[in-house]
Design a protein that fits this description.
The radius of gyration is 19 Å and the shape is globular. Strand 3, helix 4 and strand 4 form a beta-alpha-beta unit. It has about 325 residues and is an alpha/beta fold. The protein has ten helices and twelve strands. It binds nicotinamide-adenine-dinucleotide. Nicotinamide-adenine-dinucleotide (NAD) binds next to helix 4 and strand 4. Nicotinamide-adenine-dinucleotide binds next to helix 4 and strand 4.
Amino acid sequence: MGSHLTDSLLKSGYHVIGVDNLSHGSLENLKDARSNANFEFHQQDVCDLDGLRKISAGVSMIAHLAAFKIPRYGKAIDTLLINAQGSHSVLQLAVELKAKFMLASTSDVYGKNPKIPFSEEDDSVIGPSTVARWSYAASKMFDEHLALAYADAYGIPVSIVRIFGSYGPRQNLTWWGGPQSVFIGAILRGETIPIHGDGLQTRSFTFCSDTVAGLHAVLENGPSGEIFNIGSNEEISIVELAKLIHKLSGVKEELKLSFTPYNEISAGRKYEDVRRRVPDTSKAKRMLGFEAKVKVADGLKRTIEWQRALQEVELAPAGAR
Ligand SMILES: NC(=O)c1ccc[n+]([C@@H]2O[C@H](COP(=O)([O-])OP(=O)(O)OC[C@H]3O[C@@H](n4cnc5c(N)ncnc54)[C@H](O)[C@@H]3O)[C@@H](O)[C@H]2O)c1
C-alpha cells in the first residue's frame, strides 16, 4: 500500500519521504518513485524516533502504514510491540512537526461482530487474549485510541482509515499478502490451494487502486477525529475466490483445494476466524466522495497478470533474465 500511495501522492505533485525498514517491503515496488526527484527513501525503523526526526524536517502530513499483521505463523509479540511503539513514535513526531497524522487501521477491529455491514460506530467484538491472532486487532485498537488521544491532548489533526482486504500488484507473495497471492501462486504452479477452515467465510476484497484513492482522499480531506471504512462492499467467500481465480487464470488443470481445520494453522495454536466481513461505506462516500470502483473479477485479472509475469521471470534461465 505504501508504494502505491507514494505513486499517487507524487502524481499530485507532493514531495514524499518514504520510510520502511524493509522487514516485509521491497524496494522493487518503489522503482518508479525512486526515479522521481520529488521522492526520497530511508531504510529506517519507525520505532526509532530520533532516526525519524533526522529525516523529516518540514513534513506537513504523515501517512502511518508501517505495521505487522495477524501473526498467523509469526509471533504476536512483534505485532503488538511494533504496532504500539511504531505508532507512538510517529505520533510524537507528528506533534513536534505539527503535522496531520493518518493511521492505517484494519477491518479486523470489528472482529466477530455479527452485525453486517460494519459501520464506523459499531462495536469491536474480539476473541480471548489466549488466541494470538487477536493481537493484531488489539494493537490496531490501541493505535486508534492513542491517535485520538494525541489529537485530544496535543491538538494535531488525526484521521483513521480501516482498510478492508486490499490486494493487487506488488502484494507480498506469502500469506502476509493475503489469500489472493497464495491462491494465484498455487494455481499458476499447478499446486493445491490451501483453504483455512471450511472456506465459507466471506471478505470484501478491495483492489489496491481503490484503497489508495481512499487513503489519498482521507489524507487530504479527512476531518480530524474521524474514522473511515475504506473498502469495497462486494462480498465473496474464500472458496468462491479460489474458483474465480482458477477460472480467470485460464489454467487447464483441474482446481485442487485442501481444507485445513483452524486448530492446525499457526503451529497448533488456537485460531479464530471472522465469518463475514463487509463494510458500510456510506460515510466515506458522503464525506469524501470516495467509493471503490474496481470489481473483484477485474482486480483479480490484473493481479494474476502481474504475478504470472513475476513467476515467468523467476522460472526463466539466469541468462534470459
Ligand atoms: N493490505 C490489507 O489488506 C490491509 C488491511 C487492513 C489493514 N492494513 C494496514 O495497512 C498498512 C499497510 O498494509 P500493507 O498491506 O501494505 O502491508 P505490508 O506488510 O506490505 O506493508 C507494511 C510495511 O511496513 C514495513 N514495516 C514493518 N515494520 C516496520 C518498522 N518497525 N519500521 C519501518 N517499517 C516497517 C514493512 O517492511 C512493510 O513494507 C498496515 O498498517 C496494515 O496493518 C492493510
